[in-house]
Specification:
Layout lengths: L7 H54 L46 E5 L4 E4 L14 E6 L16 E7 L6 E16 L14 E2 L2 E2 L2 E2 L6 E5 L23 E8 L3 E11 L13 E3 L2 E3 L9 E9 L1 H4 L2
Antiparallel strand pairs: 1-2, 2-3, 3-4, 4-5, 5-11, 6-7, 8-9, 9-10, 11-14, 12-13
């Protein structure tokens, strides 16, 4: 008859101790869960960017692939196309002297925009460029980037690929915030002909693009000619580099390399992360808003267009 139970005080102390322990355990669990979620979002963003850059490099490197090309004239054109019996440029005119496109080197980079690039190649090696995958374009669709500034209107958007005259309708990457391109070329300035060397100025390679869509590289990104494309090239602080016009615009056929910028952003905010610092993406400078919790990553790469160099 000497069995004893717990007193009320003991029960209250035990309950309080258990509550404290459970609160601590739950706090650690929540913290670890947030860290894990943030890491997953970051890994997803990084994999997204790397796969996109890898695809861009592979496709851009193929620009100008043309097994049947003959450049005996040494001026970047293939005169034999006028007599090969093939409608090389897919306009239903075969070997017509009046069809000026027939005596051009049709393959290569055909649009060299700051935020969109279009390439042409003879992927199947049949001496024409009419195949459904032989004219390829990369960029944001018109609905995702209405003002064509290379920045997703909704914060992030799908980066896409399009073939021939179709819209950019094949997804390449999700949650991309910005994309840009620039082009190195061999035009030899005032001489106006390739000399085998990439054009440079006193600071290094000239990276330029076609600003007005006329088929010539006319605008260089490095405003202050210090060899670095950075915020210092925005001399009036409007978030856009004050591009300098090229004294001698270069035709797109002189392009030999392409530089790519891709800015990714996590699809959701990351707890405890505070976005800071500006990022230069081509001709644009992006500064996160105060209180922005998204993580970002800027990936750049240079693609040497070996097929174009053969010309």
């Amino acid at each position: 008859m000497n069995q004893r139970g717990f007193t009320l005080t003991e029960v209250m102390v035990a309950t309080a101790t258990a509550s404290i322990l459970m609160t601590g355990i739950y706090g650690v669990f929540v913290s670890q869960q947030r860290i894990r979620t943030g890491q997953q979002l970051a890994v997803e963003m990084q994999q997204n960017l790397r796969s996109t850059l890898s695809l861009l490099q592979a496709e851009i490197r193929l620009a100008g692939f043309d097994p049947s090309w003959t450049g005996a004239g040494g001026h970047g054109r293939d005169e034999t196309r006028l007599f090969d019996g093939i409608d090389n440029d897919c306009d239903d005119l075969t070997d017509q002297p009046a069809d000026m496109d027939e005596d051009r080197d049709l393959a290569g980079i055909v649009k060299a925009g700051a935020h969109r690039i279009q390439i042409r190649l003879d992927r199947d090696g049949n001496a024409d460029f009419c195949g459904s995958s032989e004219l390829v374009e990369f960029g944001f669709s018109g609905s995702a980037d209405r003002n064509r500034d290379g920045i997703a209107d909704a914060g992030v958007a799908r980066f896409s690929r399009g073939f021939k005259d179709r819209a950019l309708n094949q997804p390449v990457s999700e949650d991309l915030q910005a994309a840009a391109f620039a082009y190195a070329f061999d035009w030899n300035g005032a001489a106006g002909s390739p000399d085998g060397d990439i054009d440079t100025d006193e600071a290094g390679i000239i990276w330029a693009y076609d600003a007005d869509g006329d088929g010539k590289l006319d605008t260089a990104l490095d405003t202050d000619k210090n060899g670095i494309i950075d915020r210092a090239d925005d001399t009036n602080g409007d978030g856009v580099l004050n591009d300098r016009p090229l004294a001698h615009p270069a035709p797109l056929g002189s392009i030999r390399a392409v530089k790519v910028w891709l800015l990714g952003r996590t699809r959701s905010p990351v707890h405890g992360h505070a976005s800071a610092g500006a990022r230069v993406v081509g001709s644009r400078i992006l500064v996160p808003d105060d209180g922005d919790r998204h993580r970002r990553m800027l990936l750049t790469g240079i693609v040497v267009c070996r097929n174009l160099g053969l010309r």
